[in-house]
From TrEMBL:
Keywords: Glycoprotein, Membrane, Signal, Transmembrane, Transmembrane helix. It is a single-pass type I membrane protein. This is Uncharacterized protein LOC106808196. It is found in: Cell membrane. InterPro entries: Lysosome-assoc_membr_glycop. The chain crosses the membrane at residues 140-161.
Length: 175
């Protein structure tokens, strides 16, 4: 296991990510996952909501901890970095068991293991980019484009039929 810990504003805020290695889930590409996978096993965000300049009218103001212990976030085959070009959100649960915070990440590239010469390995698209929600959006775009193509084809065929059979204009030849 390895961790990334960041704090700022005189430790008023803290962010911790834990990473682990294990076998890959069944949905991973078998050819790329022979060596196993790495994933973010937990994320924790600590903050002080009593600072009125940042948290106006905060309920239960004070030191708060929000976390997500989802088993395999950003699961990626060994030797690759996790690359998420689109935004992804992680719901974080507070100590009282309710979702208190949402961590929004955009343009993220992570690689906790196997970094060589300070460079990321080849990027493996994160599952958020391939989620059913985004695939559904692509299906709508494909369906809309297909309908427009059929309509354009019908207009062209209709114009051809009209010109061929209904507009028989006899042109006179010039002599």
């Amino acid at each position: 296991m390895t961790s990334l810990q960041v704090s700022w504003d005189d430790d008023a805020f803290g962010f911790n990510m834990d990473f682990e290695k294990d076998e890959c889930s069944s949905h991973m590409n078998a050819a790329k996952s022979e060596k196993g996978c790495w994933f973010m096993s937990s994320v924790m965000f600590k903050y002080n909501s009593s600072d009125e300049s940042i948290f106006t009218n905060a309920k239960n103001a004070g030191h708060q901890v929000a976390y997500n212990n989802n088993s395999k976030m950003f699961e990626t085959p060994q030797g690759y970095s996790s690359l998420c070009n689109k935004g992804t959100s992680l719901p974080l649960t507070g100590d009282d068991g309710t979702t208190s915070t949402t961590l929004s990440l955009s343009a993220v590239q992570l690689q906790p293991f196997g970094v060589k010469l300070g460079e990321f390995s080849k990027g493996y698209l994160c599952l958020e980019a391939m989620s059913p929600r985004n695939v559904r959006n692509q299906k709508v775009a494909i369906a809309t484009g297909s309908v427009l193509a059929v309509v354009a084809l019908l207009v062209i065929v209709g114009y051809y039929i009209r010109r061929t059979y209904f507009d028989r204009i006899k042109y006179q030849t010039m002599q």
